[in-house]
Design goal:
Distance between the termini: 25 Å
Number of helices: 3
Number of domains: 1
């Protein structure tokens, strides 16, 4: 659960930065938001979740 909250927080921060700098219009952000909700309701959602979890595990295991 902590990984998904961190990813959501990071994406929200990036979206706010893009909205403020003009690189992302509100309509684009709304489309991305709706796409995320629709993807969460499909059969591919568990695959996306496991892929993000595996990526987070790999990144967390790396040592500088």
């Amino acid at each position: 659960m902590a990984v998904s909250i961190s990813v959501v927080l990071l994406l929200v921060i990036l979206a706010v930065i893009f909205l403020r700098t003009g690189g992302l219009k509100f309509s684009h952000a709304l489309v991305c938001l709706l796409l995320g909700f629709y993807l969460a309701g499909t059969n591919i959602a568990p695959s996306i979740n496991s892929g993000l979890t595996a990526t987070a595990d790999i990144v967390s295991s790396l040592r500088p």
